[in-house]
Amino acid sequence: MPADHSAAKVSPILTRPRLQLGRWLRLSLGLGLLALLARIVNWAEITPLFAGLGWAFVALALALKGVSLLLSGLRWQIVLRAGGSAVPLRRLVRHYWVMLFFNNFVPTMVGADAIRVLMLNETRSPALRVVSVLVERLFGLVALLSFAALALWTRPELLQYTTLSFAALTALAGTVGLLGAILLPELWWWALRWIERFPRLGHLIHEVYQAGRQYRRAGRTLLLTVVISVLIQVLVIVSFGLRVRALGLEIGLIELGLVVPVTVLLTLIPITPGGWGTQEGLYLLILGTIGISPENALAIALLSRVLDVVFSAFGGLLWALERHP
After folding, report:
1. CA separation (Å) from 8 to 23, 90, 172, 302?
2. CA distances from 106 to 69, 119, 181, 288, 308 (A)
3. If you average pLDDT over residues 185-197, what whole number do you get?
4. I need a surface site. Which of 40, 80, 117, 209 has the fewest CB within 10 A?
C-alpha cells in the first residue's frame, strides 16, 4: 500500500554510511551550542517564568499549530490538484506531520521538505513532487515575510533595527525571486542547453518547466494558495504571541510581525539536527535586537521547543505505523 512505500523510501536515506560523519558533527555542534547558552544565562530568572506558566495560552498555541497543519495540507493538496494529481487531504497532513517529526527528532542531513518529496508516492512525476513542495513552501515564506515588510511600513521606527530589517527585506526579495523562477520558467529556460549535458537532470528540469507554466495558468489555484498562506502565517504569528503571553511576557504585535518571520526563516536552515542549539541561539540574537533579555528570549525558545517536540512526536507514531502496519 502507498503508506508502506513512502516510509520505505525514507529509511535508507537515514542510514547511508557516508552521512554518518556529517550527522554526528552537526549533532555535536548543536549540543555544544546548547551547553554554551546554558552557561551565559541566569537560570534563576528563567525558572519563575515556567513556574507561573499560563497553561491556557499553551493549549491554545498547540491548537493553532494543529489548525495550521491542516491548512498547510490543504494548500499542498490545492497545488497538487493544479498539477493533475489528486491526493487525499489526510495523506498530505500525515506527510506533513511525519516531516515535522524528522525535523525535530532525527539527525538526518536530508532537509525536511526533501522528506515530503520522498514520501509523496501518490504521484509518479518527480518534477510534480519537487515543484508542488517548492511552490507550497515558497508561497508560505512570501506570505510570512510580507508581514515583516508590513510591520516596517506601518512602523518606520522599526527600521532602527537595521540588521533585522535588512534580513527580512532581503529574504523577501530572494523568496519572491525563487517563486518567480518557478512560475516564470522562461526567465531561465535559456540555460537548458548547458543542463542538457546531464540527461537525467535535464529531463527533471524540463518537467519543472512544464509544471511551472501549468501552475502559472491556474489563477484560481494561485489565489487560493495566497489566501491560505496568509491565514497560516497569521496563525504562526499569533501562536508565537501566545507562547510569549504564557510566560507572562509582552511583545507588541507589530514587533512580532517583524521578529517572527526572520526567526522562522533562519531556523529552517539545517545547520544542526532539528535546529537544536542554533534555534535557541537565534532566538537570543533576534529577540535581543528588540530589547528582550537573554533569559526571557531563552525561555521563549525553550517553550517553543517543547511545544514543537510534543506536537511533532505524533508524526513519529504515524511513520512507525506506516512502516509496521
Report:
1. 20, 19, 36, 33
2. 20, 16, 31, 29, 14
3. 67
4. 40
Q: Report the candidate in 309, 257, 258, 304 with the shortest Cα–Cα distance to residue 279.
A: 304
User: Quick check: 116 pLDDT over 70?
Assistant: yes
**pLDDT at residue 241, rounded to an integer:** 93
Q: What pTM was estimated for this model as a whole?
A: 0.81
Contact 301, 284 (CB under 8 A): yes
Three-state secondary structure string covering 248-287: CCCCCHHHHHHHHHHHHHHHCCCCCHHHCCHHHHHHHHHH
| Confidence check: pLDDT of 203 > 70 | no
52 DSSP assignment: T
Would you report the helix, strand and coil content of the chain in percent, each value rounded to 5?
85, 0, 15
Q: Which helix (H) or strand (E) holds 109?
A: none
Q: pLDDT (tens digit, 9 = 90+) per residue, 289-321? A: 888 898 999 999 899 989 988 998 888 888 887
> Which element (helix H / strand E) includes 293?
none
